[in-house]
Write a structure and sequence with these properties.
The complex is a heterodimer of chains A (271) and B (298).
Chain A lengths: L4 E7 L2 E7 L4 E5 L14 E2 L2 E4 L2 H20 L9 E10 L8 H12 L9 E10 L11 E11 L2 E12 L9 E2 L12 H14 L10 E9 L6 H14 L7 E10 L4 E6 L1
Parallel strand pairs in A: 6-7, 11-12
Antiparallel strand pairs in A: 1-2, 2-3, 3-13, 4-5, 5-10, 6-8, 7-12, 8-9, 11-13
Chain B lengths: L2 E2 L17 E3 L2 E5 L13 H12 L1 E2 L4 E2 L3 H7 L17 H12 L3 E3 L10 E3 L4 E3 L4 E3 L8 H6 L4 E5 L5 H4 L3 H6 L2 H12 L1 E2 H4 L1 E2 L4 E3 L4 E4 L1 H6 L4 H13 L3 E9 L2 E5 L11 E8 L1 E3 H4 L11
Parallel strand pairs in B: 2-18
Antiparallel strand pairs in B: 1-14, 3-10, 4-5, 6-7, 8-9, 11-12, 13-14, 15-16, 15-17
Classes of the chains: A alpha+beta (271), B alpha+beta (298).
Chain lengths: 271, 298
Amino acid sequence: MTIMQTVSANLGNRKIKIQHDGASQITVFDEPLEEQYEHTKRRVINEVPLLQNIPMMDFQAKIAMLFRGSLTLKGEQLPLQGNFEVDIKLETSRSLDELPLLLVMKSVVDGLNAVVRDDKTICACSIEYKNRKTKPPLTKSPDVLSVALFKRTGKQRKLVQAADDVPIYVVPKKEPLFLDYENDALWSFYVHDELDSIYDALRTSGMSIAGGGPIKLTMNFEGGVMGKDLDNMARVYFRLLEKLGLQSRDVHRIDLAKVQAGKDCIRITLN
Amino acid sequence: MAVQIQNWSKFLVQNNAGSQFDIQPQWFMVQRKIISEVYPDFPDPDTFRIYLYLCKHFDHYTKRCKRSKEKICIDLNYTKKQPGALRLMNYPQEVNSALAWLENNQFIRRTNKNNHQPFQCEILTAPDFVPSINAFVRPVNVEYDWYSLKDNNHGYIMAPNKAFGDAILKKSSSVRKTWTDRKLKTWLSLYAHTWLEYFGGVDPDIVTIDSNGTLVISEWFCCNLKSSKTQVGDVIVWLISRGLLKPVECYFVHDVYYGDVGCCNPPTQTYDIKIVLRPYYLIQHKLESDEMKLKWAG
């Protein structure tokens, strides 16, 4: 039987409640924090020109193409309207060190951005990693990707389009390159201080994540979250888990979901 | 599988030898998507080369490619006019079927109103490819212009016209043997990763030469070309030996190009020295950007 501990943390002038079991479950009773990525189409941040990683942009363009082509054939009007779920399966002979799942998920979702109206409309997303023991021929991709897009209506979901078993070289989300030697173009993250307070409260009360996998990570975001990006929220709490000892290479599956609710909270489970 | 370059330092750009690059005002655009592991190759060498030729001669302002079928045939050496003839009496089958394929699959659209007018076409946004049904589909709402393509993340390659002169696209067995499909695709793809202000040439994460004279090539880049590292490496060595790609020693600060070694003092910040491959043909306006004015190059 799991024993949950309740602790509190001060975030600025707010006091929030956190529950955890010391090893694999955390619930933060607060509005989910969100880390902003720069907009992918912008070429300038804080007046400093930047270059997006071309292989990543190319990968995202390929994902967009695979969906756009099929949907156009079906006569669908793009971008699609509504709320969506995305399931991703990655089978590869490469290791998770090269393919951190959260960043692969972000890259795929950014690719789908050309198909759905806004990635805020993606309210659940999962990714699963499977290691292929056999190496493909030298001219072929070491990765095989499957992506399924579902439309969400109430609690039901219906498949809109899938790209199954596509041999495509996967490129995780990468930061852009700034044409600024001092790197002062980097935006500041207000979330760092708040995250540190949550981390301190968890750490001092005995929460730590043991190394070793495979781990299935589940994060549910509840409250006034529909206007927030799922992966931007996940990025904040993934960093918290990494500080608590989680290694990205141990995470073989991630399930993210956001739900509109009266009370704000983040529920995290590792199993 | 590492590709070694023999005596590579003899190819290294020496900065006291004056300009060693050909700066070209004219450039053309080719969509990146046509070279990819999830996009089929053109059905034959003729279609690929005729498509490149059309891209090169496309006028973005009038939205027309003002090259008649006769001009295509003559420029690319498919046939010659008989002495005294005013025009070609018939067109070679390869040219007819390449143009028909490009039109049927919506890479181009004919703009001559009827068959009595000379052939004229417009280049269209390259179609999407749906592997599950092995079919091309034309994307809606994406115009074939720089802004629309960029806004919709349809990346494109900018290459100097002179780097893809008609001479290397010609229908002759010696040219086809020298300039194979793989060489043309690799040469074109290298321009997709040439960002002078950021890398001083081709992105060293795509290809560079290490201190042992070994070519280090990105796995992604090779996969995109449906080729092995050895195959791509051989092409790059060949391009270097022909003087089309020149190794240059460059200073990098925070992974961004600072200047050529020998053209400036080392940066005051922490820096790396990388060997960058810089194409011999460069696009003039790229060198004249505000960003490039901050760099020191030969």
